[in-house]
Amino acid sequence: MDAAGLALLGTTHRGVWTRRAALAVTTAGVADGYVRRGEWRTVWPGVLTDAGTVLDPGQRAHAAVLACGPGAVVCGRTAARLHRLPLIDDRDPATGAQEHLVDDVMTAGSRRTLRRREPDGEVRELRRHTRALVPSDLSRTSSGLRLTTAVRTLIDLAGLLEFDALVCAVDHALHTGLVAQPSLLAAVEQHARHPGVVALRAAVGRADRRAESPAETLVRLALLPTMPGFVPQHRLVGPDGRVLARYDLADEQLRLAVEADGKAGHAGAQMVAKDRRRDRVSELHGWRTERVTWWELRCQPAAFVRRVADVAEERRRGR
């Protein structure tokens, strides 16, 4: 047994390694003993890590590629997490969506989806795709992992995500400068035959780089079709030129603002007090603020739109 070799397992793949790599430095009996005693655990068939390791997105990506073999490229949701794109269906407390359990890899081999039940009962999926890639579609992480570029990742997400989730990802990419809109539009035209490109073209058309969170994107998608007067990131400026408030969306004519809570909400006494202070300042200047929770946005968007429409009508009549 090569003790030094065992100590080095996983150093090139951020803490995950293959059974084959383990057998290069020890015997099958020793390796299987580590798994049997719970010192190592299986991530995917033939892919191992130390027991107790909670894999971060980068480690999960490495494990997915190792499970698929040479030539595999991280793509889709897995690449989106590495690019820090928001995926609203990853562990959504409102809808119960569990897409955090799904990883995507581009491979020239089998398209069969791998599934593995975790000790807590959750079932992880490794979905393998076989779409063609060109060199300009690829980038690398600092650890050498091959993944699709941010632009190509958005193209692939168009065939994987619901429309609102796709717009959230596009908004974030534009807001952070991860991609430029001309580059994204050009890529849409270049991939005209790609599955989901119609959805991506529509998502780019509905995108707004001013959105600072998925919750803001969802508010905009809900309101603007029937209430186009709402503008993202509107500033309330006092007589002295000082910014008194900045709203997620606001209609200046109606002096009506909408503020949205994200998945985590505005929990905590300090945040609640801050929100109330801002609402009082707004009221002093003739503004009304409607607040919406993540649950309302995800589970009752029509009711939320009706509520805001009713308030808007009250404001019109009161002018």
Describe this protein with a few key phrases.
319 residues; alpha+beta; Endonuclease, Chain A; 3 domains; four-stranded mixed sheet; elongated
Number of strands: 13
**Mean pLDDT, all residues:** 91
Report helical residue fraction: 40-55%
Basic shape: elongated
What gap, in angstroms, lies between the N and C termini?
83 Å
Estimated share of beta-strand residues: 15-25%
Tally of helical runs: 13
Number of domains: 3
Largest sheet, in brief, is: 4 strands, mixed
State the low-pLDDT regions, or none.
268-272
Secondary-structure content class? alpha+beta
From the alpha carbons, calculate the radius of gyration and give it in angstroms.
24 Å
| Secondary-structure element string | HEHHEEHEHEEEEEHHHHHEEEHEHH
Provide the spatial order of strands within the biggest beta sheet.
Answer: 4-5-7-6
Structure characterization notes:
This protein has 319 residues and is an alpha+beta fold. Helices cover 41% and strands 19% of the residues. The protein folds into three domains: 3-50, no CATH class; 57-209, no CATH class; 216-318, 3-Layer(aba) Sandwich (Endonuclease, Chain A), CATH 3.40.960. Helix 7 crosses helix 10. The longest helix has 18 residues, at 301-318. The model is unreliable at 268-272 (pLDDT under 50).
